[in-house]
Amino acid sequence: MILQVALPQMKMFPVLLLLLAAFAGAVLAGGNFNQDFDITWGEGQAKILDNGKLLTLSLDKASGSGFRSKNQYMFGKIDMQIKLVAGNSAGTVTTYYLSSLGSNHDEIDFEFLGNLTGDPYILHTNVFAQGQGNREQQFYLWFDPTKDFHTYSILWNPLGIIFSVDGTPIRQFKNHESKGISYPKNQPMWIFSSLWDAEDWATRGGLVKTDWTQAPFTASYTNFNALACTSPSGSCSKNSSANSWFSQSLDNPGIERIKWVQKNYMIYNYCTDSKRFPNGFPPECSII
Fold this sequence. Notes:
- The protein is mainly beta.
- The protein has helices at residues 15-23, 33-36, 252-265; strands spanning 37-41, 46-49, 54-59, 65-69, 72-83, 92-99, 107-113, 122-128, 137-139, 150-157, 160-165, 168-174, 190-197, 217-231, 266-269.
- The strands form 2 sheets. An 8-stranded antiparallel sheet has the order 1-4-13-6-7-8-9-15. The protein has a 7-stranded antiparallel sheet with strand order 2-3-14-5-10-11-12.
- Residues 1-29 have low confidence and may be disordered.
């Protein structure tokens, strides 16, 4: 569901967030795309360059493109630096997500919805558990994601899921299975990414179509890093200090940063959409 809202007023960026953005990429030990991923579709449209340090996906009228991790992961902290399609990206969608397969799949989504030149991207997030999604939250970003690489992170552990941008948490989905709310914890997931044409819905609900005279559209990826348990080997030591992510949750400063982002940059929250849920919001929406 894509909503059109006014661009929120940009506020003074806190010094802490600026520092996080400046150093977000510096702490990543960049993986090798040749070793970590397979190009799965769009032959010739996806390229691994610079001895595996850079991957690009392209979209033209003939085809988009995509890739998938060689490993499956069962919990982890996943970081990817992405530079999105520049210029008129209306109608295009760049995705980066974790997912299992099948009708009862689990999934943790970042999707970047393109827009006309000068209009902001929409960052769309969602969580699926046992095939059930409909947990969308959408945001504007506080920077131009096409000018440089920025780090998009998913922390997924038995306690919850935290979405972060340049080290700043933007969304948390806690494990409330004890209260009857499904949570993705039993299915290992691959990392997927794709660039594809979604002009029927991506920009202003499909009112703005893809301008193919601007093709090829290209998104770039670098500095992949995964601190994670791989499957089926299950290789990870949950008690190791290197795997502190396994029991990590938001501290008070992190909670305050999420509140700041959601106050200033969130443009859609399924938990406040009374027209969509006239008979009451999903149960997790009332749990703090």
